[in-house]
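Following up on my earlier message about FE3-S4 cluster. Here are the inputs again, as you asked, copied directly from the submission form:
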Amino acid sequence: TGTYTGRFRVWRGDAGGGSLQEYQVEVNEGEVVLDVVHRLQATQAHDLAVRWNCKAGKCGSCSAEINGRPRLMCMTRMSVFAEDETVTITPMRTFPVVRDLVTDVSFNYAKAREIPSFVPPAGLAPGEYRMSQEDVGRSQEFRKCIECFLCQNTCHVVRDHEENKAAFAGPRFLMRVAELDMHPLDSAAATGLDRRATAQDDHGLGYCNITKCCTDVCPENIRITDNALIPLKERVADRKYDPLVWLGSVIRRR
Ligand code: SF4
Ligand code: F3S
Ligand code: FES
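Thanks, got it. Here's what our run produced:
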């Protein structure tokens, strides 16, 4: 019938500590991990804390680690596990636990606020903006982000290094800086804001050593490393080695 009793270990606890609890829960054909978590909550663990909204991989709320791999619970089919396999569900490791599977992701909102927004070009009214399709396509890929923060959770720069959090914005937000720096209409430079300089100095681009773990876990399959982080590094390097910039700095030093 496609129904079986699955074995699960779910992390229960809060900021003060916790442990893995074992449960046996009914699993039906076609279900995803979030269905089982909801059944567990309805039948045995009524106070189990879990965050979710859409069950369609679009709200970015149900991020967790399943058998150690960062994933969306609503997009992880139970059929990827063997029926006799114990499925372990733990909260994202990089962010502080609120309770059970719910973490406090405010680190990410703080990093988002540190990035100055798009600066519209002076003298152009809405409706007069023109962009090539190639430029539109580039930022469209980055705009698919659902802010699940799985990439932020996975990047080794912060995953086990609380001390790096102050200096490093993480892949999702470096991608945002890249998007703005590549945007042909962004006029931040006219206001004295050098996005390439801030990428390096304020958002910690130099910490990224392009391991691509962020890209591997992105549920939207955004090519974060290849299309945002590496190009941004190249743009930062261009700025540093641009002969005119170099000459300018030599002249200023004299
Ligand atoms: Fe999630 Fe991908 Fe956005 Fe990172 S870039 S927050 S993994 S959707
Ligand atoms: Fe981290 Fe992704 Fe760079 S995992 S090191 S931000 S390529
Ligand atoms: Fe919305 Fe999983 S519940 S992404």
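One observation from looking it over: Strands lie at 4-14, 17-27, 63-66, 69-72, 86-90, 97-99, 102-103. Hope that helps, and feel free to reply on this thread.
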